[in-house]
Amino acid sequence: MLLTKAERRYAMTGGVVSLAGIAVFVGLAALALLLSSGTSSIVPAVTDPYIIRVLRFTLMQAVLSTVLSIAFAIPVAQALARQPHFWGRIWIIRLMAVPMGLPVLIGALGLIGIWGRQGILNSLLAAFGMAEPVSIYGLGGILLAHVFFNMPLACRLMLAGLERVPAEYWLMASGLGMRPLAIFRFIEWPVLRSIIPGIAGLIFILCATSFTLVLTLGGGPAATTIEVAIYQSLRFDFDPGRAVALSLLQIVLTALILGVLALLPTAGDEGETAGRGIKRPDGRLPGARFVDSGLLFVAVLFLGLPLMSVLVAGLRSNLYKLMTEPVFWQSTATSLAIALLAAILSLALSLMLVRARHAISLQAERQANVRTLSALMGGASSLVLLVPPIVLATGWFMALRTVGDVTTYAPLLIVAINALMSLPFVMRVLEPAYVIHQRRTQKLAASLGISGWARLRLVDGPGLRTPLLTALSFAMALSLGDLGAVALFGSDSFITLPWLVYSRMGSYRTNDADGLALILGMVCLLLTIAGTMGQPRREAALHG
Q1: What is the distance in angstroms between the CA of the first residue and the CA of the last residue of the chain?
Q2: For residues 515 and 310, what is the distance between their CA atoms, to the nearest angstrom?
């Protein structure tokens, strides 16, 4: 008996309470959307030409963004896989993690600094006599921004798949004298083909539910996604019927996408390996290193220049003046408080769900209802994918506007929404670490009679400190840089740092926006780095 009856009861109770709380919060928002507008008004709204155009653009930009991200990620991942000893390789891989930990608004500002009307690209074109500047706003800018954020994600996942190819494959390829095209066809492509559908599905849903990038770079009604249209319907037009119709349409769209993703096959194992060092024959061919170096140089420029633009523009602003403004400290305190509370709530929910699922897994005989409960707990974190943050915010906006001033409840709502937004990432960090820790310690702890608070203090606390801090820092970084729910509830009396950056951009105070963006970006990156400091350096050890 690895768990006492009391421990199993506490674990199950905590898991059920967490699951019920998540379901009630999401369910009430969805119910408010359904009740706030009758079917008679929803059906005409869904068939509105404007909504149809928004849906068409949402799907089109998501498809194009996914195709471009995958297409550009493949050669970069191949170059990194072919050159395991390339100078600076580990830093290139780490650079690709930066956009994933960077607030979307900050990345958009960096792209504007390079590709915008006054950016580096247009300055170079003007020097060569081109009078008409390249515009980053509209579909082109949205695609560029989505590739900036999603190509590194796709590249890292593809690289992980290629590095799992057994060394014996490369030994055989070398013995057979296979050329690069044959290596791609018979070794690399089968691996990529098995993981690309899952990567593409993930990127597609991220692009289909994109809010901040489209809000910043959309450029008008012609380039508007469903989530931005929801925001505009409530914030500017105050058309609740249209907002409800768009929210329900977004739920249906994300449900269909998640349904398709569930049907995709999982990537299989490439085969057994004797653990030999990886020596790829195609990476040593004449010219291969030159071509790979060129690809990686272009990738570094594409990712690094916008980040440098944010840094340079931020340093040019009057940081001292910004940091002496009362609104800066007000927004910073609000952002940090919301981020910390949201991260703690997300961590607590995740721990209770993970403990309950682990307790269920230890039962010798699991009935169908218990297995279903475990599956529901595992899928609870995905509810935020089904009902995105802006839709959740809209549902609660509709529910609370009849009670009183919605802004009164804004801080609590944003904490809860940000906690749910972080839940999938926190669960992904905690659950594997918790399961491995329990496998290593639960038998010894049970044999020594260590349980309850003693086990938490002596065994679980020290053993899970690193994944807990990692999950906490990532959740804080995600919440700190979020603009979704804040964009709907933000006001003069309730300001966060992302909302302050966006409002300064809207009032054409770009220097202030650049300085605030630098501060926000540095805080989020420091939180992300702090979360990975305790992790082993797998990238460096892989080919060491």
Answers
A1: 42
A2: 8
